[in-house]
């Protein structure tokens, strides 16, 4: 089995990202399968506020996460905010979700984020967050990567 690698995606990744966005939309909305939209993938990758992290198994893109690096009003620091994390059907249950969360936490440590916020992870994603962070899988999802108390710090 190939190693899982992650990286921030650039414009060149649009062709690999488009089918995953389509699969995510199909899974969320049901109905007829959506066609991969290269233009939308390019637009997302060029967005001035969003960033996209990709996970690869070998040369094939297996997952993506759309996230934001935002100011935190009270502390004057920054926070990461995950909008979507999607793993392609053929790549699930292979450690990719955990690798993506670990990559986001590492990115947060590099950028000195106060915390990594995520409004609505799935149940399996919540479990992976708990594994990575050491906090309860039923906790409100705010994985601390910065200056919070010891019981919420990512180790």
Automatic annotation (TrEMBL):
CDD domains associated with the record: NAT_SF (cd04301)
Pfam families: Acetyltransf_1
Keyword flag Ligase: no
Cited InterPro entries: Acyl_CoA_acyltransferase, GNAT_dom
Ranges where the N-acetyltransferase domain occurs: 4-155
Signal peptide region: none
Record keywords, A-Z: Transferase
PROSITE patterns tied to this protein: GNAT
GO molecular function: acyltransferase activity, transferring groups other than amino-acyl groups
Protein name: Acetyltransferase (GNAT) family protein
Species whose genome carries this gene: Cohaesibacter gelatinilyticus
């Amino acid at each position: 089995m190939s190693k899982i690698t992650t990286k921030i995606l650039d414009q060149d990744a649009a062709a690999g990202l488009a089918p995953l966005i389509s699969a995510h939309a199909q899974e969320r909305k049901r109905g007829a399968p959506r066609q991969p939209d290269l233009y939308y993938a390019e637009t997302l990758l060029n967005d001035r506020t969003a960033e996209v992290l990709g996970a690869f198994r070998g040369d094939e893109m297996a997952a993506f996460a759309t996230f934001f690096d935002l100011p935190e009003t009270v502390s004057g620091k920054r926070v990461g905010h995950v909008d979507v994390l999607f793993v392609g059907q053929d790549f699930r249950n292979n450690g990719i979700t955990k690798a993506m969360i670990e990559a986001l936490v590492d990115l947060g440590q590099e950028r000195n984020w106060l915390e990594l916020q995520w409004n609505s992870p799935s149940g399996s994603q919540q479990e992976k967050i708990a594994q990575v962070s050491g906090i309860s899988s039923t906790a409100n999802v705010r994985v601390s990567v910065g200056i919070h108390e010891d019981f919420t710090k990512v180790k």
